[in-house]
Amino acid sequence: MQVLIDIKNLDLFYGEFQALKKVSMSIPEKAITAFIGPSGCGKSTLLRTLNRMNDMIPGTRIEGSIRVGDTDIYGSDVDVETLRKKVGMVFQQPNPFPKSIYDNVAYGPRLHGVTKKHELDEIVEKSLRSAALWDEVKDHLKRSALSISGGQQQRLCIARALAVNPDVLLMDEATSALDPISTLKIEELAQELKDRYTIVMVTHNMHQAARVSNQTVFFLNGEVIEYADTEKLFSNPTDQRTEDYISGRFG
Amino acid sequence: MTRRTEFDQQLDAMQQLLIQMGTQVEQAIANSMRALQDVDVVLAKSIVRDDAEVNQMEERITEMGTMLIATQQPVAKDLRRILVAFKISNDLERMADLAVDIAKVVLRLEGEDLIKPLIDLPRMAEIVQVMTYESIQSFINENVDLAYKMAKDDDTVDALYSQILRELFSLMVENPKTASQGMLLSFVGRYIERIGDYATNIGENVVYLVTGKRPDLNV
C-alpha cells in the first residue's frame, strides 16, 4: 500500500506538557487507520495535527515533521485553508451550520470559488450520495440542517467535508454521540469511502476499531505502543500493554 | 492491572470445568485399560454409563464460551482461551468416546481368555494416560514445553502401535482361531493411538493459546 501520511519524530507540547513523544508512523492511502488508547494518550492530539487544528491552541509547539503526499504540512509555505480542504474533519458532535442542508454542503465549494448553480447542484448531490444521505434528504434540501436526526446530521457533516474533494477524512470520535443504528451507518459509510479516501479515525470504541479499520495504532502517554494490521493487533498483539488495554484490563 | 471481575470469574469457571472434564477422561482411559486386562465387564459398563457426564460437560463448556463471546466481546488471548476451550473439550469428548470403545471391546470379550498376555497395549495406554494428564497440565500452566514433549511421546505410542499390529498379525496367521479376538485387540491399539493424537491436539491448542500461532505437532 502507498503511504499518504508520513509522520516522523513528532513531539508536541502544550506549554510545558508533552502530549506526543517521538511519534513516527506511515499511514497508507485509501485505507482506514484507527487510533485507540485511554483518555489523554495523545490520539486526538495527533489526529488534530494532521490538519493543523492544534494551531488554534495557544502555547502549542511542534517538532518533527508530517508529510501529506508531497507536502510538509508544517512548512512555512503551507496555506492552512488549502490543507484543511485536502484533509477534512468530522467531529464528535455533529456540527452542521444553521443553514439549509443544501447550503451546508455547498458552503465549502462556494468558499473555494464555485458559483454556478448547476455545478453546485452536482457537487451537493454527489457529496450527499457519497455520504449515503441523498435518498433521505433529496426532497427537502432547503430544510434546515438542524431539523434532521443526529445520525443524519453527522452524515451531512461528512458530505460537507467530501464536497471540497479531500484526500483525507479525519474522524474524531465521529460516532460516539450517535445511537447504534446511526453508528452502524457511519461505519458502513466509512467502509465505502475508503476506496476513494484515506480515513483516519479516533475511537474510544475498541470494537469499532476492530470492525472498521485496516490498521490500528495503540497510544499510551503520548507514545505509539503498537501499530499493526487491525487483525493482528486484536488477535495477537505484540506488546503486553496493548493486550491489557484491548482486553479491558487496563486503566 | 484492572480485572474484569465478572468476566474473569466466568473464564475461571469454564477453565475449572475443563480441568474437571480432563480428570474424568483421564480416569476413563485408565479404567478402560484395567477393564481390558482383567476382562472386567462391570467396570466396562460403568465407563459406558459415565460417558454421558463427559458429553454434558462438553456441552456446558460450549454454552459458557458462547455466552462469554456474546456478552463480553473478548479479544486476543481472552478470545483464544475460549476458542481453545471449545477445541480441547471437543478433543476430550472424543477421547472419552474412545475409552468407551475400549470398554465395548471388553463387553464383547466377556467369558473369554485373552489370546496373549497384554504387555504393549498397557504400555501404550500408560503413555497415553500420562499424555492426557500432561495435556491438561500444559493447558492449566500454559506450558508450551510440555506440549512439545507430548508430541515426542506420541511418536513412541505410534511405534508401539505398529509393533502390536505386527505381533497380532503373526498370531492370527499362526492360529486363525485367534482372529476374532486379534481383530478386537488391534482395534484397541488403534483406539489408544487415536487418544494419543487427541492429547497431541490439545498440546497444539495450548501452543496456540500461548503464542497465537498454530504448530502441527501431529506429524
From TrEMBL, chain A:
One of its GO terms (cellular component) is plasma membrane. Residues 5-246 form the ABC transporter domain. It is a peripheral membrane protein. It is found in: Cell inner membrane. Its main location: membrane. Gene3D superfamilies: P-loop containing nucleotide triphosphate hydrolases (3.40.50.300). GO terms for molecular function: ATP binding; ATP hydrolysis activity; phosphate transmembrane transporter activity. GO terms for biological process: phosphate ion transmembrane transport. SUPFAM superfamilies: P-loop containing nucleoside triphosphate hydrolases. Part of the ABC transporter complex PstSACB involved in phosphate import. Responsible for energy coupling to the transport system. This is Phosphate ABC transporter ATP-binding protein. It comes from Paenibacillus sambharensis.
From TrEMBL, chain B:
The keyword Transport applies. It is found in: Cytoplasm. Keywords: Cytoplasm, Phosphate transport, Transport. Plays a role in the regulation of phosphate uptake. Residues 19-106, 121-206 form the PhoU domain. Belongs to the PhoU family. This is Phosphate-specific transport system accessory protein PhoU. One of its GO terms (biological process) is intracellular phosphate ion homeostasis. It holds the Pfam family PhoU. Homodimer. It comes from Paenibacillus sambharensis. SUPFAM superfamilies: PhoU-like (SSF109755). The lineage of its organism: Bacteria, Bacillati, Bacillota, Bacilli, Bacillales. Its main location: cytoplasm. GO terms for cellular component: cytoplasm.
